[in-house]
Specification:
Blueprint: H1 6-28, H2 40-59, H3 66-74, E1 78-85, E2 88-95, E3 104-108, E4 116-121, E5 124-127, H4 129-132, E6 138-140, E7 145-146, E8 151-163, H5 169-182, H6 190-216, H7 221-235, H8 240-257, E9 260-262, H9 265-271, E10 274-279, H10 281-285, E11 286-297, H11 303-314, H12 320-329, E12 339-345, E13 349-354, E14 359-363, H13 365-368, E15 379-383, E16 386-397, H14 401-410, E17 414-418, H15 423-433, E18 437-439, H16 444-455, E19 459-464, H17 470-475, E20 478-482, H18 487-492, E21 495-497, H19 504-539, H20 545-558
Parallel strand pairs: 10-17, 10-19, 17-18, 19-20, 20-21
Antiparallel strand pairs: 1-2, 1-3, 3-8, 4-7, 4-8, 5-6, 5-8, 9-21, 11-16, 12-13, 13-14, 14-15, 15-16
Helix pairs in contact: 1-2, 1-6, 1-7, 2-8, 3-5, 6-7, 6-19, 7-19, 8-19, 9-19, 11-12, 19-20
Length: 559
């Protein structure tokens, strides 16, 4: 590659030791002094230690190619195709490969949507969070767009296939992950940076040793050559092959004990250099569970009555908001089973009647659109066809997130929020955490564009958990995912935090990375120290082979 890295130094040093030994045999065969010129074991030791170091490092690296496989699994293999023959309709199980644009498909609750398209008939609730970052399931009705790979939480529908094969959004994300992995810049290791200076200097000293010895001091060609090669031999530190891998193995081991999985030594080194850290919102900064932010009463109704209505209505719904409301109100000692009739209104909400004949409803803005123009609330509550309350829900922020953001800012690392969720929700969370730079409603393609611009200013860490984060995780200098993330996100990242409840491990990861880099620098110093001291001594022909071997061995022990 034209760069004098550590491998060049190792090649020159090991080859020099070998050539030095061969010349020694040719010139001193039969002599009592021949043992002073035999360094075959130095060549073997250098190569063995370097390869050992490589093996140790490789074992700590988990290949990230699994991300593509995990994305492939999301693509459902079969679909229910609607076929009309002789005026009669039948449903046929068809391979997704045989779906063409314009085909009608039947999709029911629990199914993954097979391809991109739009709703022909039916109302469904679709969980798009893993692909779009939208924290809540989305209501879909006739004419609404559908994304292949997303999951129907409730309801059933007929859809028209609009984009199939490589044109679907999921296929494009797979392609983006492939490209991000291929075009990710390689990291130049610290050892290579040191070698880039050290190697040319040693080569110059070696040449000067020969010319000065032969032309300046009239020493024989043989002795001048031996001194010149001795400089190359002594300059190749065996310990350099172990300096980085040993520190990396200990750093990765220490991280693992703290519940942090790190793929490879490069990650530790690169993590200490990041200037920006980008956070996804849903499932990363927030728990994905919702809590009641506020209940605004509109009539003479008491808050206790509204809570009772909500608790008893939402008991009968599978919507994530409903489950969160029931969980939060369960500890309030509210009387249950106060309704005699309950029915779900598809795409709208839920309705019930009590023994006195009063009708209660709770649902989305679609249910309330005749009564109010304010669509900013999560839930609207009715009694006898009158709007009695607005309910606002918020995605719960994980423990320690504010502390982690403050810690990163103290280390001159800029936090950025990058999410597919709505602008209002993102800005609300960012304001609570002190994050000034916010990108909301971002598609996977847009996330890559944002990441590219941030990378212009230095290393970028990306913390995410969804499929829509996978391309950005692969593209970032260091991708970080959470234990409960999708397998795609985990495979696309280099660091996995096993504690899904908070982000405290992010601070631990940074501190371990810093300490590991410090240890690598110390190791490299000792790996070079003896050699640097010994080079001028070897250059004037005063260093005995025994002392050379001792200096190299001692640097190994120090490391």
């Amino acid at each position: 590659t034209g760069v004098p890295n550590m491998d060049v130094l190792i090649m020159i040093g090991s080859a020099s030791a070998f050539i030095y030994s061969l010349i020694g045999i040719l010139l001193f065969y039969g002599s009592h002094d021949i043992h002073n010129y035999l360094f075959f074991e130095t060549t073997a030791t250098i190569i063995t230690l370097v390869l050992l170091g490589n093996v140790m490092e490789r074992r700590s690296v988990k290949q990230t190619t699994g991300a593509i496989g995990e994305l492939m699994k999301l693509q459902t293999s079969m679909a229910k195709k609607v076929i009309i023959e002789g005026g009669k309709e039948k449903i046929q199980e068809t391979s997704i490969k045989d779906i063409t644009v314009g085909d009608q498909l039947l999709v029911v609750a629990g199914d993954k949507i097979p391809v991109d398209g739009f709703v022909l008939s039916g109302d469904v609730l679709v969980d798009e969070s893993m692909l779009t970052g939208e924290s809540l399931p989305v209501d879909k009705k006739k004419g609404d767009k559908l994304i292949g790979g997303t999951l129907i939480v409730n309801g059933n529908m007929r859809m028209l296939a609009e984009k199939v094969g490589k044109d679907t959004m999921l296929s494009k994300i797979i392609e983006m992950v492939k490209n991000a992995q291929q075009h990710k810049p390689s990291i130049q290791k610290l050892g290579d940076k040191v070698s880039a200076i050290f190697v040319p200097v040693v080569l110059v000293i070696s040449l000067l040793t020969f010319f000065i010895s032969y032309f300046g001091f009239d020493i024989s060609v043989q002795q001048s050559l031996m001194s010149s090669i001795a400089v190359l031999v002594i300059s190749c530190p065996c310990a350099m092959g172990l300096a980085t891998p040993t520190a990396v193995m200990v750093g990765i081991g220490r991280a693992a004990k703290n519940g942090i999985l790190i793929k490879g030594g490069n990650t530790l080194e690169e993590f200490t250099k990041i200037k920006t850290i980008v956070f996804d919102k849903t499932g990363t900064i927030t728990t994905g569970d919702f809590k009641i932010k506020s209940i605004k009463i509109l009539s003479n109704t008491k808050r206790e009555e509204v809570e009772s209505i909500l608790f008893n209505l939402e008991h009968h719904s599978s919507h994530p908001i409903a489950k969160s409301i029931v969980r939060e109100l369960a500890g309030k000692n509210i009387a249950s089973n106060i309704f005699s009739e309950i029915k779900e209104l598809k795409g709208l909400g839920i309705e019930a009647k009590d023994k006195e004949g009063n009708i209660y409803k709770a649902g989305s803005f679609k249910m309330a659109s005749e009564f109010t123009k304010d669509d900013s609330h999560s839930l609207y509550v009715f009694k006898n066809n009158g709007l009695i309350a607005f309910v606002d829900m918020e995605d719960e922020i994980k423990n320690n997130v504010k502390e982690i953001i403050t810690f990163l800012q103290s280390k001159k690392i800029k936090p950025v929020l990058l999410s597919g969720d709505t602008k209002m929700k993102c800005e609300e969370v960012a304001a609570k955490l002190g994050i000034s730079e916010v990108y909301s409603q971002q598609t996977p393609e847009q996330k890559l564009i944002v990441l590219d611009s941030l990378l212009q200013n230095g290393g970028v860490g990306m913390v995410g958990d969804g499929i829509n984060d996978a391309p950005a995780l692969a593209k970032a200098s260091v991708g970080i995912s959470i234990a409960n993330a999708t397998q795609t996100a985990i495979h696309s990242s280099q660091i996995v935090l096993l504690n899904k409840k908070d982000l405290f491990q992010l601070k631990t990861t940074y501190l371990i990375s810093k300490h590991t880099l410090k240890t690598i620098k110390q190791n490299l110093f000792w790996a070079f120290f003896y050699n640097v001291v010994a080079i001028p001594v070897a250059a004037v022909g005063l260093l005995s082979p025994v002392m050379s071997a001792l200096a190299m061995a001692f640097s190994d022990v120090i490391v």
